[in-house]
């Protein structure tokens, strides 16, 4: 009986053990269900000033924010709009942790300072918009390290100056918009690090292009410089600018084109100098080694006729049309350089123009016919290659 009783007792213990485990499992299952239900009912983390349309799209517009609520944002956010808030300063690493962010808008804020590496830690960011702010300076390294960004919109701000290395390491930028800014000065190496830009437009009113202003700007589809007011195109202004589809300098007061202004400019497919006022040309030196495919000089008002020996234009194709020169005793210099056609005007006018060297009075008497000649020369024979 003892053995039988012992056997019976073991069975009871086993039954009790199984019962206890069943209760424990049931309690755990209830707790798990309750926890899951709470997670389904409670909304994900979202700043109270924002609307989280999803875990990837967040709108914080007109929310009165004075700081960027990075810690309250979903770490998975891809599209973030922070327009019309109150961010006077964008600090370094301001968006650290939002590694999935692809599109960021900061339009309409009172941003006056962007600290170096403000957008570091955003490896997937493709589009950044900072427009309609009082931002006055694109500071050194402000947009540095944005390796995969394709578009930066900086129009309608108060930008007066672009400092050197502002975009260092931002190597895949396709579009940079700086229009509608009162930019006065572009410093040396301002765009160094941009290696594959499709289009770069500048606003009107630029007054200072420092030497090496475009150094390091490699592979640009379209670069337009218009409505500038410069005292001079200084030596080395375009040094280091390479692989450009179209470079257009137009509708500007260029002052004096100094010696070696275009030194270091290489591999330009189309180079246009259009409708500018040029006080004088110290030297226009474009060599075969610079690999410039097509140069077009049209509609420029050149106030002082350059000497033939200062002009060295070694391009594959050249068009000179409808440019305006002063009618004085140095007009003969046009026939000795690449700005003249060289087909038949030498046969017609060489004797007359040689005579103009001898006396100012003779030159004065010839002014009307020289003016007619110049008009005919550049209107009829201006295009050549």
TrEMBL record:
SMART domains with a match to the protein in the record: LRR_TYP (SM00369)
Any one Pfam family match given in the protein's UniProt record, by short name: LRR_5
Keywords: Cell membrane, Disulfide bond, Ion channel, Ion transport, Leucine-rich repeat, Membrane, Repeat, Signal, Transmembrane, Transmembrane helix, Transport
Transmembrane feature ranges: 21-42
Keyword match Magnesium: no
Record carries keyword Signal: yes
Compartment annotation: Cell membrane
GO cellular component terms listed in the entry, alphabetical order: plasma membrane
Descriptive protein name: Connectin-like Protein
């Amino acid at each position: 009986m003892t053995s039988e009783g012992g056997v019976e007792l073991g069975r009871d213990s086993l039954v009790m053990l199984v019962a206890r485990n069943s209760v424990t499992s049931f309690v755990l299952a209830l707790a798990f269900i309750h926890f899951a239900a709470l997670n389904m009912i409670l909304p994900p983390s979202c700043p109270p000033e924002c609307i989280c349309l999803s875990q990837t799209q967040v709108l914080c517009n007109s929310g009165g924010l004075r700081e960027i609520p990075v810690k309250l944002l979903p770490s998975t956010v891809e599209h973030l709009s922070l327009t019309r808030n109150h961010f006077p300063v964008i600090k370094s690493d301001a968006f650290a942790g939002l590694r999935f962010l692809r599109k960021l808008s900061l339009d309409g804020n009172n941003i006056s300072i962007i600290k170096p590496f403000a957008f570091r830690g955003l490896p997937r960011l493709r589009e950044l918009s900072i427009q309609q702010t009082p931002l006055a300076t694109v500071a050194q390294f402000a947009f540095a390290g944005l390796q995969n960004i394709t578009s930066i919109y900086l129009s309608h701000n108060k930008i007066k100056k672009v400092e050197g290395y502002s975009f260092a390491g931002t190597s895949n930028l396709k579009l940079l918009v700086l229009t509608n800014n009162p930019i006065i000065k572009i410093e040396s190496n301002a765009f160094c690090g941009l290696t594959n830009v499709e289009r770069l437009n500048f606003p009107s009113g630029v007054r200072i292009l420092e030497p090496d202003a475009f150094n390091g700007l490699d592979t640009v589809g379209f670069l337009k410089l218009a409505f500038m007011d410069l005292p001079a195109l200084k030596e080395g202004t375009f040094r280091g600018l390479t692989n450009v589809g179209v470079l257009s300098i137009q509708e500007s007061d260029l002052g004096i084109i100094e010696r070696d202004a275009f030194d270091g400019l290489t591999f330009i497919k189309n180079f246009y100098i259009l409708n500018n006022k040029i006080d004088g040309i110290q030297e226009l030196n474009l060599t075969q080694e610079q690999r410039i495919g097509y140069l077009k000089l049209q509609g420029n008002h050149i106030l002082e006729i350059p000497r033939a020996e200062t002009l060295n234009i070694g391009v594959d194709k050249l068009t000179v049309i409808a440019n305006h020169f002063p009618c004085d005793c140095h007009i003969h210099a046009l026939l000795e350089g690449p700005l003249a056609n060289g087909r038949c005007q030498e046969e017609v006018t060489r004797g007359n123009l040689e005579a103009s060297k001898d006396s100012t009075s003779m030159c004065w008497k010839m002014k009307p016919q020289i003016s007619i000649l110049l008009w005919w020369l550049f209107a009829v024979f201006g295009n050549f290659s």
